[in-house]
Amino acid sequence: MNPSAELAAFAAGLRFEHIPAAVVRKTEDLLVDWFASAVAGKGARPVESIVRFAAAMGAGEGASEVIVTRGRSSPYLAAMANAAASHFAEQDDVHNGSVFHPATVVFPAAVAAAQALGASGAQLLAAGVAGYEVGIRVGEFLGRSHYKVFHTTGTAGTLAAAAAVGNLLGLDAQQMRHAFGSAGTQSAGLWEFLRTAADSKQLHTAHAAAAGLMSAWLAKDGFTGADRILDGPQGMAAGMSSDADPARLTDGLGARWATAETSFKYHASCRHTHPAADALAHVLREYRLQPQDIARVVTHVHQGAIDVLGPVTDPVTVHQSKFSMGTVLALVARFGHAGLPEFERHFRDPDTVTLRDKVQMALDREVDAAYPRRWIGKVTVHTVDGGTLQGRVDEPKGDPGNTLNRDELTAKALQLASFSGGASDEEMRSAVERLWHVAAWPRVGRLL
Amino acid sequence: MNPSAELAAFAAGLRFEHIPAAVVRKTEDLLVDWFASAVAGKGARPVESIVRFAAAMGAGEGASEVIVTRGRSSPYLAAMANAAASHFAEQDDVHNGSVFHPATVVFPAAVAAAQALGASGAQLLAAGVAGYEVGIRVGEFLGRSHYKVFHTTGTAGTLAAAAAVGNLLGLDAQQMRHAFGSAGTQSAGLWEFLRTAADSKQLHTAHAAAAGLMSAWLAKDGFTGADRILDGPQGMAAGMSSDADPARLTDGLGARWATAETSFKYHASCRHTHPAADALAHVLREYRLQPQDIARVVTHVHQGAIDVLGPVTDPVTVHQSKFSMGTVLALVARFGHAGLPEFERHFRDPDTVTLRDKVQMALDREVDAAYPRRWIGKVTVHTVDGGTLQGRVDEPKGDPGNTLNRDELTAKALQLASFSGGASDEEMRSAVERLWHVAAWPRVGRLL
């Protein structure tokens, strides 16, 4: 079997009972965290545009939930709407090694399909794991050259969504391969939009979830796709990567659970800022420093951080400020945490701007060499009294070795819902409470 | 203005009265020819799969016509269904220089939007021209390196559809640029499916028409896209081409009408086979040869033909046989024309297979240098009695200098409808007759 076929067979054959209990628990955590991000998208202009489009082009009925409107639609259009919603707040999960955001493409498709098909909670979790395992490996396979131009969450995301929905539809291995073929040939998403702060990020996830779901649905109906869409001579890697490694596609399938390697986002900012943010928080706590004690901060970072964050020197929007290393560290210094309310209320305070301009980035060989497998945080803080303090974090908050527990995930979910107004505290608390028991649900019903 | 902006401004500003009368007539011809191809998709398995998916995910009502079911849907899902339908018979039009099939991505989106918006026939024609002019130039821009891996009709098609629908929606130049950004960042379609004769070709056009329409619709609602999706440092060319030429994007805008350069397909096969097919037909007529007189045929072709057709040595489906140079030439030798009935009934006859295996392709410097601006057909026929005959065609049948007239287009339309059973002779004749007067329609209603 070639790697595409092996990966497809795995995605088709995965069942709830094959998944270790710890991975199931983690998947429940990821589902709750995704749900909160979807609720957090309510009211965001680009999200509401896509939600309006989906409503205008669909039925206004159907078994699948549109989370931000509390309406219903077909699984295809609900997946589109919920995927747009869950990628706006920059709080959805990330897999470090693949630089891929699995939840926002996998769960919108899986939940919409599960609701339409009357699947059980256990089936939804298994489908989610199938989506994560596939999407993460495809992202790793496509490599760093791909990520330089393509938004991996959009591109690998079509296959991740197809794997999840195909698993729910009970595709056999050959049908799953066809679903991969159809998903991969719709794979898309370019970073160019970042240059002018355009809205494409949510379009990429909407597209990936919807196209992936469509691919699985078509495969169930006998529609065929390329056999080797990933590594064939005119496949995804041939067109969109120069360092693709087919061995990554099947790396530890069924033994290594990539799902469990996924990180939660603690700060509401670009993940590239998190290691330094945590290292700074550590220094401030350790030495009991106040913001006014800081003369200068040097963050020792990987090249990817400089590439993505470097251009953002004077952010003018909340969303852009999440890509400003200085702003994130200033908020952490002032409030201990850079969450949604901190950004919204304080991203351009004079105190924030003053601190922001004291932060520099410097390329660090150790940090760069460890990336993307490990995201090490290192800072040097120069104090106003002439001191020099070092801070280091080997696993930023939210990484598997330093994860968020269920209380922290619940608190984050409540904060996200309250921020967007997508659900009341009481509703959200009850929805999250129910979701902790998803593995026992006989049918996946509405989440809200 | 950069080229992306200039092209967007042209697409936004184009009005019916700007278009020369001869180009309007040609666009009417292209619309009729597209309509016939859409009718021809009825009953084809991959088409019916996509049509069923669109029906399952939508409303079953709406102002836009689904041609093969005679049902109705939203413009988004109708565009998806009709685009799948019109690219199946391999009889839809092609622009030589860009190796791009404009009709099957432009008209499904434009007609569906026009029906939903209550646009006039003149507005539909102007939108069609906007789509053709943009799509063809984007295809030319992306170049030969792109076409080696990507199906240009799928990739450039998202922008073509966005231009057409954006023109109908009355987008201003900036909104059109945003529509281009959203369309380009969804641009997708890989040739890998050909290797195993998978169904992706119709998925590519369905995807392009639907994603392009969505992009224009979102732009009207304020959704933004990258400013330089085509030629920016992380745009389409950066990710998917190594020989892109930005000058092609604006080549002769408003003076050179690329729409009028579009070719009709005479044979029901991949366009790369047509020049050789016509050259062979010429030799057979000229020297009054019979199939049994042929010992061997060498077709002297451009590299693109070898890339696309080379892998197809023993086609097992009708659709795959349309990408087999040997099969096409065998049918031409046996029947004088490789039309839908010839493929359907004879693609695997022993006589066809015997002839097929006598056909070789050889790269020809002159043909390759002229390509893609001119598609020259050259064949050498070795006869069983030891003779060697040369055949040459400088413009294959259907090219602008050797075009199909309205009687021939009508006859082709009737044949397509009768082949699929998509419409009776009488219905088709009356639908085509009405379409010749589309420029005078106050509103675009149902075509069937």
Automatic annotation (TrEMBL), chains A, B:
Domain MmgE/PrpD N-terminal residues, every copy: 6-247
Residue span, MmgE/PrpD C-terminal domain: 267-437
Alphabetical list of Pfam families matching this protein: MmgE_PrpD_C (PF19305), MmgE_PrpD_N (PF03972)
- Superkingdom, according to UniProt? Bacteria
Q: Name one GO molecular function term.
A: lyase activity
Which PANTHER family did the record assign? 2-METHYLCITRATE DEHYDRATASE (PTHR16943:SF8), 2-METHYLCITRATE DEHYDRATASE-RELATED (PTHR16943)
State the similarity comment.
Belongs to the PrpD family.
Protein name, UniProt field: MmgE/PrpD family protein
